[in-house]
Automatic annotation (TrEMBL):
Coiled-coil annotated residue ranges, if any: none
PANTHER family documented for this protein: UDP-ARABINOSE 4-EPIMERASE 1, UDP-GLUCOSE 4-EPIMERASE
Gene Ontology biological process terms from the UniProt entry: galactose metabolic process
Catalytic activities: UDP-alpha-D-glucose = UDP-alpha-D-galactose
Assembly, per entry: Homodimer.
Species of provenance: Acetobacter syzygii
Protein name per UniProt: UDP-glucose 4-epimerase
Amino acid sequence: MRYLVTGGAGFVGSHVVLALLDAGHDVAVLDNFSTGHRAAVPEGVPVYHVDLMDDQATANVLGDKPWDGVLHFASLSLVGASMADSFHYLRQNYVTGLNLVQACAAHGVKKIVFSSTAALFGGPERAEPIPETALVQPDSPYGESKFMVERILHWADRLYGVKSACLRYFNAAGADPHGRAGEDHRPETHLIPLAIDVALGRRSALRLFGTDYPTHDGSCIRDYIHVTDLADAHIRVLDQIGARSVVYNLGNGRGYSNLEVIQSVERVSGCRVAWEKAGRRPGDAAVLVADSTSLRQDTGWTPQWSTLDKIVETTLQWRKNNPEGYTR
Ligand SMILES: NC(=O)c1ccc[n+]([C@@H]2O[C@H](COP(=O)([O-])OP(=O)(O)OC[C@H]3O[C@@H](n4cnc5c(N)ncnc54)[C@H](O)[C@@H]3O)[C@@H](O)[C@H]2O)c1
């Protein structure tokens, strides 16, 4: 099959490109390299250097070849930045999604897999894993913008027969176990790479946002899913969305507090992670843990790499081997 991956130069997209290639598919990447890296795209994979805000250029890519499906990762994705620059976030994520889905409908592309997010649940503090049926009530423009794209996909199915899978990721983390790709956000805001950088002496201390949440140790609880398991879910879902559109939560089903993450990094690296208290960040929920039962039941997906220590181990290895991250 031939697949187009938007945002394939980014963290999650680059790992899914590898999984698609490993599964024997033809892959091309569409990216504007705003946060992605050239070197994250494997040699030989064609690249369209295009901004999805440009509807004509986007339509040209979709019309360039007969695509069997599109995987849509390209997005702005920081909760905090979306609180500060809300209209920019809403516009970018909505318009890029609309341009892409419209071009897919116009060119007869019938399958789209979309990176949605647990941030669209937001809202009340929960101790229970969140099912797909939970109330959508985003706490941030970022979460809202993802839900807006889910709604575009709903109408694309109803009116144009474009089938989609909206995968509501919880926290993607880890790195390719073969060392071919890793996480390199600039600036990095994700806890695991930041804690590892402190352990490796590349940062002085970690700022822990909120230590007074109603959790067992006062820090936020998140569900970390290894990016290789996440990629595997995309491959399985692609096989499955021929007949109907689906929405799945995609997580490990087990939450770890920020302090437990720090302990794991200390355990795996053998180094101390200095941290300091900081205030809560607006838009952060206390607990976000996925109930991914429907994905497991429908596709047979079972995470293989998603214990916290394995996630930390693969991230540590990648950061040790790539001290500067991607160099282009
Ligand atoms: N990383 C996570 O934990 C996580 C959690 C939930 C959801 N998600 C979603 O998964 C997707 C991938 O996340 P990531 O961590 O890999 O992000 P990332 O920033 O590493 O990758 C995004 C990619 O999209 C590209 N891009 C952004 N805007 C574009 C545009 N207008 N046109 C073309 N390309 C554009 C960037 O250059 C980059 O390569 C995002 O949609 C994000 O919202 C990620």
